[in-house]
Amino acid sequence: MSSSELQNDRILRAFQRQPVDRTPVWMMRQAGRYLPEYREVRAQAGSFMGLCRNAELAARVTLQPLERYDLDAAILFSDILTIPDAMGLGLNFVAGEGPVFEQRIKSAADIDRLPQPAADKELRYVMDAVRACRQELAGRTPLIGFTGSPWTLATYMIEGGSSKTFAASKTLLFDQPEAAHRLMGKLADTVAEYLTGQVEAGAQALMVFDTWGGALDPVRYREFSLAYMQRIVEQVPRERDGRRIPITLFTKGGGQWLESIADTGCDGVGLDWTTPLDEARRRVGDRVTLQGNLDPCTLHSNPDVIRREVARCLEQFGHGPGHVFNLGHGIQPETPPENVDAMIRALHELSPAYHDAATAQSSS
Q1: Could you confirm whether 79 is annotated as catalytic?
Q2: pLDDT digit string (tens) for 204-252?
Q3: Is residue 183 within 8 Å of 176, Cβ to Cβ?
Q4: In the annotation, is 156 catalytic?
Q5: Would residue 33 show up in a list of annotated catalytic residues for this protein?
Q6: How far is CA 75 from CA 78, 205, 274, 329, 342, in A?
Q7: Which residues, including other chains, have CB under 8 Å from residue 43's CB and lie 6 or more apart?
Q8: Of 207, 56, 204, nearest to 140 (Cα)?
Q9: 29 a catalytic residue
Q10: Measured between alpha carbons, how far is 232 from 208 in angstroms, rounded to an integer?
Q11: What is the DSSP code (8-state) at residue 215?
Q12: Which of 9, 79, 210, 272 is catalytic?
């Protein structure tokens, strides 16, 4: 089944700011530890990366949220650190610590020695998972492929894992900017090929997670993060099977740079919960679709509070297309699954009032 035969293309139309009957919704990390069925499959796989590398199991957990909830997209189950792992840095996930690399980048020579893994070779297991997901979805909803941004990937590669200060990473930008640019360029081109491979395997929308872009000052953000995300946007396919392949850029903590992000040529800009939707819409107009921005902690509240916060987000964005409802960051492992259902039910009940149903139906 081609993308033009999708049973539900609401989210793809929203990314083109076309009329829809209700605000589409998906969630960052929607396939994850908050779901007991995910935890069962994760145990079966033996490890997190074992799950990522098993196309059949990765497809199974990708579809699990769609079996529970009326969502408008599936997002590939994988990890943003597949590329650094394929570059030979040795990725492990340590309980209580998160991702840890056996090797880390310490010098310009380390950067120059980094290989550029190919999507159809070292990262083929991701492409196999995309193909398996598309087969299992059978046109039910679009499939979103994703990656980490070059800057975000670089922080893990330089720090050797997670960091609160990014001291080593930022020192590279200040002291060795030429080496930093070589690293970002190598990562950007690898990411672009990786996303292209996902599109060729069947991904129908793309997402770039710039999780740590907000840790940079404005000068370094534009030079070392945004510029390389734009390089990716310029390289990836933007159409397949006669349909637009939208790409969304999400910089956590990046609300001050919305206009610059929108200027990259992306289709969507992700928002965390610190930037109001009405302010963001005033600033970028109709250049891009806005995605977000419910605080994930809202889903620890009771259904009445969740409904109120959903209503607030819808009211902030206002009438018309160009909004994809999402959390402002990934759903948290402790989230009660029934609270996700309360959020989606509230959205489905409240959002049609913000759309012209007759126009949406005539365009679908």
Answers
A1: yes
A2: 999 999 999 999 999 999 999 999 999 999 999 999 989 999 999 999 9
A3: no
A4: yes
A5: yes
A6: 9, 9, 24, 14, 21
A7: none
A8: 204
A9: yes
A10: 9
A11: G
A12: 79
